[in-house]
Specification:
286 residues; mainly alpha; four-stranded mixed sheet; binds glutathione
Length: 286
């Protein structure tokens, strides 16, 4: 039986709808996606940035269709099926599935080296450092985002206003830690080049409005109110503005009104997705 989360708008709207329409033709690389999903948006950004041909296939991952489970036993989007490398190396299973957004991002970098821009630096040290901050986003920022979003006044020891202040503070601290690592010149994490570090955070950074909508504000100081961290927050705002203005980011976003009911379920802690349950159990991102 489908979980209540399955009751989502069936397709992308706004700019993302136009992009989906352009990617309906059969292509060797199939992109099983959910228009609403930030993990999907990560992969979508990389496909768009690198102009890799893909066929967009809308999936409602809460319905767990058996044909989709055959590709990804966890039934999560994003999932891709990658083309076979060469006709002589033809696999009996024509669809070679891959899942987990960060694994797919690395795969696209390796499998499409001629597709520019490269989204990881070539220098091994800088590459490794980029991976540290990619991991930081997934293991720290996103769980803190969800602990804040899913917080309920009755939760744990620090319930009510104090509890909300605590989870808000913890989330803002992760953003500040990230912001301190941004290259001073920017505008992106590594400098002038957009990279996977920007890609992995962009979908959540462009959803910060959910805290204004449901939790009384994000808690990032307004311009001029950052005290000793003013420079850090000024740099954060410059990063966010550059990311929000990026073509790939703008074109993969749907209209806000259709995200609202989905995020309302998280904000009331009623979502039954794997992510919501993992965060509830204190397990981070599934
Ligand atoms: N760790 C996965 C997370 C993917 C994920 O949680 N996707 C959600 C949609 S945003 C999903 O498919 N949920 C279905 C479910 O929870 O049953 C990744 O990075 O790709």
């Amino acid at each position: 039986m489908p979980v209540p989360d399955a009751d989502i708008h069936p397709s992308a709207t706004g700019p993302a709808q136009a992009l989906v329409a352009k990617h309906q033709a059969e292509q060797p690389l199939k992109f099983y996606a959910g228009w609403f999903c930030p993990f999907v948006q990560r992969v979508w950004l990389a496909l768009e940035e690198k102009r890799i041909p893909y066929q967009y296939i809308e999936i409602n991952p809460y319905n767990k269709d058996p044909s989709f489970l055959a590709l990804n036993p966890r039934g999560l989007v994003p999932t891709i099926t990658s083309p076979c490398p060469s006709p002589d190396n033809h696999s009996p299973h024509s669809a070679r599935p891959l899942y987990e957004s960060t694994v797919i991002l690395e795969y696209l970098e390796e499998a499409y080296p001629s597709h520019k821009p490269a989204l990881l630096p070539t220098d091994p040290y800088l590459r490794a450092r980029a991976r540290i901050w990619i991991d930081f986003v997934t293991s720290r920022v996103i769980p803190a985002f969800h602990r804040f979003l899913q917080f309920q006044p009755g939760d744990g020891d620090g319930g009510g206003a104090d509890g909300l202040k605590m989870v808000r503070g913890e989330f803002v601290d992760t953003l500040k830690e990230f912001a301190r690592e941004l290259s001073p010149q920017g505008p992106y994490f590594l400098g002038q080049e957009f990279s996977l570090v920007d890609v992995v955070l962009a979908p959540w950074a462009t959803r910060l409005w959910v805290f204004e909508e449901f939790k009384g504000g994000v808690g990032i100081p307004l311009p001029g109110e950052g005290g000793e961290d003013e420079g850090v927050w000024e740099r954060w705002r410059r990063w966010l503005a550059a990311v929000e203005a990026r073509r790939s980011v703008r074109e993969t976003c749907s209209e806000r009104e259709w995200y609202l009911p989905i995020y309302a379920r998280y904000a009331e802690d009623k979502a039954r997705s794997e992510l919501a349950r993992a965060v509830r159990r204190g397990r981070g991102v599934p």
